[in-house]
Task: inverse folding
């Protein structure tokens, strides 16, 4: 089955700096790669996703890149703000309703 | 409803007891998923419903875990003979018609077995 690894487990940046979180996956059949943000006491919330036919996608300060050959994808947050502090999860799915998540990255943005 | 609602938000139970966790999906969403999230980990898939039927229950860890969705809307996750290792946050998600895209998660039920 699919195995998703996520790095780093914790990340601390200064407000205004960029943050990058990386994930690798094992199943070459995976074709959908979402990123979720989870705040304390809440469920994960989708922030951006990418499908396997696209190499990069951007939404304001957030971007995701995908390298299917290397089986890795990354989340990039630019101009970080304190409210970006949360736990971020990557996930991978072959659209069969079984989504595998990474272990999460706790991002802290220091004002 | 406007979002996925899970009740209770917190549940403390004694080892060996039976618990039920409820999920009320977004109105009209035919697909419903249960995940379990242990401390410091990502969500782990448990079971997926399409309508009333369990289309994939391969993530249920053992036969103490069972879930139902009798009318294709509200779902109940049932855990028998609870063990301390069952302590986790149980998350429910729904999507309009299935497929990994379009998940909306609830806030979860934090289960603590003492």
Result:
């Amino acid at each position: 089955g699919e195995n998703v690894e996520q790095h780093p487990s914790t990340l601390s940046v200064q407000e205004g700096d960029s943050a990058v979180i990386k994930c690798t996956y094992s199943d070459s059949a995976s074709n959908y790669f979402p990123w979720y943000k989870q705040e304390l006491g809440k469920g994960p919330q989708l922030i951006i996703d990418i499908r396997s036919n696209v190499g990069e996608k951007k939404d304001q300060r957030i971007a995701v890149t995908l390298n299917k050959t290397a089986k890795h994808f990354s989340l990039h947050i630019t101009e970080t703000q304190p409210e970006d502090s949360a736990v971020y999860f990557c996930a991978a799915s072959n659209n069969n309703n079984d989504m595998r998540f990474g272990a999460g990255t706790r991002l802290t943005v220091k004002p | 409803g406007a979002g996925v609602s899970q009740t209770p938000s917190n549940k403390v139970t004694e080892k060996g007891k039976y618990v039920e966790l409820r999920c009320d999906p977004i109105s009209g969403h035919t697909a419903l998923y249960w995940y379990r999230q242990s401390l410091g980990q990502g969500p782990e898939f448990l079971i997926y419903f399409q309508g009333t039927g369990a289309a994939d229950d391969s993530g249920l860890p053992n036969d103490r875990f069972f879930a139902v969705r009798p009318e294709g809307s509200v779902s109940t996750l049932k855990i028998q003979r609870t063990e301390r290792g069952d302590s986790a946050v149980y998350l429910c998600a729904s999507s309009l018609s299935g497929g990994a895209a379009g998940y909306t998660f609830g806030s979860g039920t934090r289960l603590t077995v003492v």
Observations:
- Chain B touches chain A through 27 residues (CB under 8 Å).
